[in-house]
UniProtKB/TrEMBL annotation:
<dbReference type="GO" id="GO:0033627">
    <property type="term" value="P:cell adhesion mediated by integrin"/>
</dbReference>
<keyword id="KW-0401">Integrin</keyword>
<dbReference type="GO" id="GO:0009897">
    <property type="term" value="C:external side of plasma membrane"/>
</dbReference>
<dbReference type="GO" id="GO:0098609">
    <property type="term" value="P:cell-cell adhesion"/>
</dbReference>
<dbReference type="GO" id="GO:0007229">
    <property type="term" value="P:integrin-mediated signaling pathway"/>
</dbReference>
<protein>
    <submittedName>
        <fullName>Integrin alpha-9</fullName>
    </submittedName>
</protein>
<dbReference type="GO" id="GO:0007160">
    <property type="term" value="P:cell-matrix adhesion"/>
</dbReference>
<dbReference type="InterPro" id="IPR028994">
    <property type="entry name" value="Integrin_alpha_N"/>
</dbReference>
<dbReference type="GO" id="GO:0008305">
    <property type="term" value="C:integrin complex"/>
</dbReference>
<feature type="repeat" description="FG-GAP">
    <location>
        <begin position="32"/>
        <end position="97"/>
    </location>
</feature>
<dbReference type="GO" id="GO:0005178">
    <property type="term" value="F:integrin binding"/>
</dbReference>
<dbReference type="InterPro" id="IPR013519">
    <property type="entry name" value="Int_alpha_beta-p"/>
</dbReference>
């Protein structure tokens, strides 16, 4: 009787072991980071280069778009650490060079942005989040959640957050987006005075 009972138990244990081995192999094979042939891109030190990363494809060219929210910007040298967005070509780029993208915002620390809007760009964290439209010629959204409206001076500093919509070509005019700004809103609690929009972003279909 013992021999008859032992056989099914041994069979079940063997099946379980085979299942665990198969599961382990499946998990190992599904891990999709290529450790043997990585593409390594580097940016300025202390810039948080790589805080956000995005793949982009346009006109038969593949890019890696990288946010560096603590970077100094070569296009905005008068602004203190506004952050930057870089584009890194995947192919035909043997030196793995990345170049900063010109978001067309000029070199002024303060910028007029509405009837009661004066933007402060110091430490705005541009590139904290990146998003892309899921289509062939998709636009890119790059945001700075620490951008502030200081129109009312020190009494009311409103960290609304700011985003730029970048064309698929990665050059040319960008479109500003300040979803939480409304004319004549001047205090925290007036609907969304301190919303820090852009800490995350996504395009809907």
């Amino acid at each position: 009787m013992r021999k008859v009972m032992a056989s099914p138990l041994r069979h079940r244990t063997g099946v379980q072991q085979s299942f665990y081995v198969f599961l382990f192999i499946s998990l190992a094979c599904s891990y999709n980071i290529d450790l043997e042939h990585p593409l390594v891109f580097q940016g300025p030190s202390s810039s948080f280069f790589g805080y956000s990363v995005l793949e982009h494809f346009h006109d038969n060219t593949r890019w890696i778009i990288v946010g560096a929210p603590k970077a100094n910007s070569s296009y905005s040298s008068s602004v203190r650490s506004p952050g930057a967005v870089y584009k890194c070509r995947v192919h035909s780029n043997p030196e793995r060079r990345c170049t900063e993208m010109d978001l067309g915002r000029g070199n002024r620390p303060r910028e007029s942005c509405g009837k009661t809007c004066q933007g402060d760009r110091d430490d705005e964290w541009m590139g904290v989040s990146l998003a892309r439209q899921d289509r062939a010629s998709g636009k890119i959204l790059a945001c700075a959640h620490r951008w502030k409206n200081v129109y009312y001076d020190s009494e009311h500093i409103l960290p609304h957050g700011y985003c730029s919509i970048i064309p698929p070509t990665l050059q040319g005019r960008t479109i500003p987006l300040i979803p939480c700004y409304e004319d004549y809103k001047q205090k925290y609690g007036e609907e969304h005075g301190s919303c820090q929009a852009g800490i995350a972003g996504v395009f809907t279909e």
